[in-house]
Design a protein that fits this description.
Helix content: 10-25%
CATH architecture of the largest domain: Sandwich
Strand content: 35-45%
Structural class: alpha+beta
Order of helices and strands: EEEEEEEEEHEEEHEEEH
Shape: extended
Largest sheet: 5 strands, antiparallel
CATH class of the largest domain: Mainly Beta
Oligomer: single chain
Number of strands: 15
Number of domains: 2
Length: 198
Amino acid sequence: MKIKITLEPTFSIKWPNLDIHINDKEYFSGECKPNKDKHFIFDIDLENAQEQNSLKITHRDKHGKDTIVDEEGNIVSDRAIILKSLEFDSLRVPEVILYQSKFYPNWPDQPKYTTNNLYFGFNGTFEFLFSKDVERMYFQHLLDKEMIANFNNKKEMQLPNGQVVETFEFNGKEVSGDEKDTATIEDLYQRVTQGKVI
């Protein structure tokens, strides 16, 4: 299994330090500075993948003085790592799936972990769980991506009788998801092109 990690390190006083582990085996430990344009790209050829695996990307050795601020407290430069992409056998993990993974900060007064974060400004470890079956994982990620999108786009409306139903947008109009009529794609096409209300 070939794994490609693309990171964007940011410089303040110096470049960030990075550790990469898979299933607790160290694959990289050192300075994270660009090796291809503005990115740090690291490739791993994983020979003995388990059914379930853990990839850990750790940002370490950052200190408060590594974040430079102006007189108003705005950040001018920061020592950090941004996860740009993760690929398994050239199949890219959708960004929304990466955002679901946990980052465990190693900094005072922080929660045990955060999600929805690919900017590693704190010392801490990002963990991504992956399976041995890369193609199956890829298609599962596509399904998960669709589910997340549907969940975040879910809307509801109240009918005149007081019943609350799920809605979706169709042809620029909000339509009840509780419709009882069925239609083929051709029927829908005819209704849309003829301007009929569904």
